[in-house]
């Protein structure tokens, strides 16, 4: 599943953690989206096919028409869908990976309402409206189909598994997902707190950030896509890369679950202590100076 989907499922693990960690979870979801966008930019720059500039130039026509319509909040599907399909087909024909067309179309959709339409407080923007419409098709059909056709791994028994984990490509992928993402997220957060006025919330500890940083190591759809483009479908490196992506994601998820569940228990104990009222006076004991409630 995409990383943002997995960050969403992390809510089941961090259900007992303080609100600032739930906010950090949402920041993690945003970071996962940005991470995928950067990966798609890498695909566009480093993995294009033979470029056909005439098709790339023609892409501007449906893309501009789509942009004009959504900016005017004209969201009739019989207008937007043909334009989106035309943009996708032209980008594909140009030699650039068609995923880029989806990103460009997404950037064209307004996230918040304009001032003329009441501003952000007037209700959800068109992007959120589209997201609710597309999510069942995306999460329920497109992603499972991609996973079904892309994630099949032919291990070849123990010898095949040994071959996968002696491949330096596979080792590099596992290390990048488990250690690289962890160091990147935790290190960049620490660097921001040291070089700017930003600080961690009083209710948030560095071990909590570490748990979320470990969760960032889960990668699937975009990782598989880049591996396929890099090594070619059916190549030994690609098969080894799929094993490594699955293994690295499982390791990262398990480590994150261990850390976050330990912190979950810690914060639940604190919550019980803060709500204890042994003398029954309606004031939690932790807020009283002495036992008589004074």
UniProtKB/TrEMBL annotation:
One MF annotation (Gene Ontology) recorded for this entry: sodium:proton antiporter activity
Ranges annotated as spanning the membrane: 53-70, 137-158, 170-192, 204-226, 238-260
Localization per Swiss-Prot or TrEMBL: Cell inner membrane
Main location: membrane
Source species, domain of life: Bacteria
Pfam family membership, one: Na_H_antiport_1
Alphabetical keyword list: Antiport, Cell membrane, Ion transport, Membrane, Sodium, Sodium transport, Transmembrane, Transmembrane helix, Transport
Any one Gene Ontology cellular component term annotated for this protein: plasma membrane
InterPro entries: Na/H_antiporter_dom_sf, NhaA
Membrane-protein topology: Multi-pass membrane protein
GO biological process, one term: regulation of pH
Stated name of the protein: Sodium:proton antiporter
Natural source organism: Arthrobacter livingstonensis
């Amino acid at each position: 599943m995409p990383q943002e989907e997995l960050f969403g499922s992390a809510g089941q693990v961090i259900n007992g953690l303080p609100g600032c960690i739930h906010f950090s979870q949402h920041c993690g979801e945003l970071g996962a989206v940005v991470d995928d966008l950067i990966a798609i930019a890498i695909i566009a720059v480093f993995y294009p096919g033979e470029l056909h500039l005439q098709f790339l130039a023609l892409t501007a026509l449906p893309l501009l028409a789509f942009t004009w319509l959504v900016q005017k909040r004209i969201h009739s599907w019989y207008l937007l869908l043909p334009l989106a399909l035309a943009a996708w087909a032209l980008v594909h024909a140009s030699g650039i990976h068609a995923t880029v067309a989806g990103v460009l179309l997404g950037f064209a959709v307004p996230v918040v309402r304009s001032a003329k339409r009441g501003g952000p407080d007037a209700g959800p923007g068109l992007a959120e409206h589209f997201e609710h419409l597309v999510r069942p098709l995306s999460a329920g059909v497109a992603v499972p189909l991609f996973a079904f056709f892309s994630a099949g791994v032919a291990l070849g028994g123990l010898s095949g598994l040994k071959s996968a984990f002696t491949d330096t490509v596979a080792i590099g992928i596992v290390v990048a997902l488990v250690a690289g993402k962890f160091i990147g997220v935790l290190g960049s957060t620490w660097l921001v707190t040291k070089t700017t006025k930003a600080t961690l919330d009083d209710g948030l500890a560095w071990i909590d950030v570490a748990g979320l940083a470990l969760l960032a190591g889960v990668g699937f759809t975009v990782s598989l896509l880049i591996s396929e483009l890099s090594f070619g479908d059916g190549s030994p490196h690609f098969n080894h890369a799929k094993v490594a992506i699955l293994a690295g994601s499982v390791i990262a998820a398990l480590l994150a679950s261990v850390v976050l569940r330990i912190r979950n228990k810690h914060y639940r104990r604190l919550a019980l202590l803060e709500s204890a009222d042994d003398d029954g006076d309606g004031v939690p004991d932790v807020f009283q100076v002495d036992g008589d409630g004074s």
